[in-house]
Design goal:
Helix 5 packs parallel to helix 6. It is globular, with a radius of gyration of 27 Å. By secondary structure, it is of the alpha/beta class. The strands form six sheets. Strands 10-11-14-15-16-17-18-19 form an eight-stranded parallel beta barrel. Strands 20, 21, 22, 24, 25, 26 and 28 form a seven-stranded antiparallel beta sheet that branches. Strands 3, 4, 7, 8 and 9 form a five-stranded antiparallel beta sheet that branches. It has three domains: 2-136, Immunoglobulins (Immunoglobulin-like, Sandwich), CATH 2.60.40.10; 154-572, Glycosidases (TIM Barrel), CATH 3.20.20.80; 582-664, Golgi alpha-mannosidase II (Immunoglobulin-like), CATH 2.60.40.1180. The structure holds calcium ion.
């Protein structure tokens, strides 16, 4: 059998060597391969390699003993197969070996590439690794389960950079900056307060959203003692975990196993895991691992054939081309199945086309419909893709159960992202009430919102509240404290900044939609005024865990807000219709005040009616409230779900820069 097979390969190889490379008039004419065996299929008895390279004149496989150093111990020609692919079967046990592909176009050999579907690599992601994936599973992995989730509106997102989480000495964590930091329990700061994963449980968030954790290019994994920092928005290998967060980036099994240990530990703590995925561009364009397979195909070009740059990073991928679309769908499915990932945040999602995003949604629904998808509904530059095809905010209604970030509520609350000194509603800025109301109704259609007065969008874009991410800060731009400080009114005190901060997150946590906080905001983090810290040192980026003790009042307030939201379904209404029926704004006849009622046990709420008042003014206001047997749970910067006091009058003072929340049974 074996000899027959080799003979067959030889014959086929001779035939294919005589075939001429087809010439295609456009990318649309490239054949599409629909099989699921691209690049490597490993068994202990044989490894089969299949590369999609329709424009290649020759393709070869290079085999290595080492993932980084030394030359190939063997080079083998691949032969032309169906639908633009090249095939080779090596009937040996190649476990532990490394490989690359090399493509010849015309008379020119391109650089080596580990391929784009590669799932394991050596250090720095340069060569693909052949491993047995069963060896990457930590004990108990088969029993690992996603924590329960009913509605997307039940989610509380926490955006976290893996290194920020544990790098500070006062994290008390042993595996600082590593995936394994998430597996450590019982860790404490200098004052003995919980840090790390215990802290996340204490805070009560439901999902950790990790900044890029796939293999990115900017950190040299052979020089980890240099302690370089990067956010990681420079993709190298999409289907491989980043090596610098592992304890040994040279051993291809280690990073995979440790990533899984991280997911397993978070799941055990009742927390779901979201990955930030950056399919919109690659670290380098020409010469990337994708481009070395099929030059040009995976990227968009302008009319003059120059490369377009909607990412602002020098290139943009072309999700509308079938093989890029297939890659994105299968890559997301791979992370959701092999690594048990529970959600995906798409960087610059507006670069992708709507059809691709909906195909990803459908593929994830086949695995588990509670896997969450959301993204930035914008681009960072001009794209040749027609605007009505883009997965941008204004097209959100065409996206199926995929959410977009609301920069509308973000900048209404804290002020412009572009102008650091411009304040928002929480710092006392005027005329932002309608934008705040737009956030409160989760970017849906509501009869009491005047959409013409919004700061950005002039129409509702969400089909229902689960389609919008409400937030006031994230890794981009200044963190909340820095922004509030930079934009503070001339005579604002430090104490007032705390009030602004708490008011901002109160609006986020009580609004309809999916709330999102940036890691460390709950301990009053500062990044020392730097707005783009993508490669700033740890001293700027790391979470200072002693801040939890120093700003205990802020932490307790955030924790209280999350507990309020989780205990009260009225803040988590799943549909636009229910919001329209049960959320009623009340005109308090006072500028910079937004008030509303959530009525009649909406969404199974235990409280009958809830009254929420946000006072953006830097002075207290006297307002007229509906007659009722009210119980205050949030007032004057304090939150207590057991009740602060009762309210029986219709005249009510809301203190400066704060929220009052009360209920009746
Ligand atoms: Ca890397």
């Amino acid at each position: 059998m074996k000899q027959n097979f080799i003979f067959m390969v030889l014959i086929t190889g001779l035939i294919s060597a005589c075939q001429r490379t087809p010439h295609y008039a456009s990318y649309a004419d490239y054949p599409v391969y629909d099989g699921s065996d691209l690049e490597l299929t490993f068994t202990p008895s044989a490894s089969t390699f299949r590369v999609w390279a329709p424009t290649a004149d020759e393709v070869k496989l290079l085999l290595y003993d080492d993932g980084y150093d030394g030359g190939a111990y063997k080079t083998i020609d691949m032969h032309r197969s169906e639908k633009g692919t090249w095939l080779l079967k090596v009937e040996e046990n190649l476990k532990g070996k490394f490989y690359t592909f090399q493509i010849k176009i015309g008379d020119k050999w391109l650089g080596e590439t580990p391929g784009m579907w590669v799932k394991a690599t050596g250090v720095n992601g340069k060569r693909a690794a052949i491993i047995d994936f069963t060896e990457t599973n930590p004990p108990g992995w088969d029993e690992d389960e996603r924590p329960p989730l009913k509605n997307f509106t039940d989610i509380v997102l926490y955006e976290l950079h893996i290194r920020d989480f544990s790098m500070a000495q006062n994290s008390g964590i042993q595996h600082r900056g590593k995936y394994l930091a998430f597996t450590e329990i019982g860790t404490k700061n200098t004052a003995g307060e919980s840090t790390g994963i215990d802290h996340l449980k204490e805070l009560g968030i439901t999902h950790v959203h990790l900044l890029p954790a796939f293999d990115f290019a900017s950190i040299d994994e052979t020089k980890l003692n240099e302690n370089k920092y990067n956010w990681g928005y420079d993709p190298l290998n999409y289907n491989v975990p980043e090596g610098s967060y592992s304890t040994n980036p040279y051993n291809p099994v280690v990073r995979i196993r440790e990533f899984k240990q991280m997911v397993q530990a978070l799941h055990k703590a009742g927390i779901r895991v979201v990955m930030d995925v950056v399919y919109n561009h690659t670290s380098t364009g020409k010469g990337s691992h994708l481009d070395l397979l099929v030059p040009g195909y995976f990227y968009r070009q302008n009319a003059d054939s120059s490369w377009s740059n909607a990412s602002g990073c020098g290139n943009e991928t072309a999700s509308e081309r079938p093989m890029m679309r297939k890659f994105m769908v299968e890559s997301v499915v791979y992370w959701a199945t092999e690594y048990h990932i529970d959600g995906f945040r798409f960087d610059l999602m507006g670069i992708h086309d709507i059809e691709t995003m909906n195909e990803i949604r459908a593929a994830l629904d086949n695995i588990d419909p509670t896997i969450f998808m959301y993204g930035e509904g914008w681009t960072a530059g001009k794209s040749p893709l027609a605007e009505d095809l883009r997965a941008v905010k204004k097209n959100a209604k065409k996206l199926n159960r995929i959410a977009v970030f609301s920069d509308d509520i973000r900048d209404a609350l804290r002020g412009s992202w572009m102008h650091a000194n411009v304040p928002g509603f929480v710092s006392g800025a005027d005329s932002l009430e309608e934008s705040v109301k737009f956030g409160v109704v989760g970017a849906t259609l509501h009869p009491q919102v005047d959409y013409s007065k919004l700061i950005y969008s002039k129409a509702p874009y969400a089909n229902d509240p689960a389609q919008v991410i409400n937030y006031v800060s994230c890794h981009d731009d200044m963190c909340l404290y820095d922004k509030l400080k930079e934009s503070r009114p001339a005579n604002a005190t430090e104490d007032e900044l705390v009030r602004f901060d708490k008011l901002a997150q109160t609006i986020i946590m009580t609004s309809q939609g999916v709330p999102f906080i940036y890691a460390g905001e709950e301990v009053y983090r500062t990044k020392k005024g730097i707005h783009n810290t993508y490669q700033s040192p740890d001293s700027i980026n790391e979470i200072n865990w002693d801040f939890k003790t120093l700003h205990r009042d802020v932490f307790d307030y955030y924790k209280g807000l999350i507990a309020l939201r989780k205990a009260h379904a009225a803040f988590r209404i799943p549909t636009q219709e229910l919001v329209q029926q049960h959320l009623k704004f009340i005109d308090m006849q006072t500028p910079n005040v937004v008030a509303y009622m959530l009525t009649d046990h909406v969404n199974g709420e235990v409280w009958k009616n809830i009254l929420v008042i946000y006072n953006g003014n830097r002075h207290s206001v006297l307002v007229q409230i509906p007659q009722g047997n009210w119980n205050l749970v949030c007032h004057d910067d304090q939150i207590n779900l057991n009740g602060i006091s009762t309210v029986r009058t219709t005249h009510f003072f809301v203190p400066a820069s704060s929220a009052s929340i009360m209920y009746e049974e």
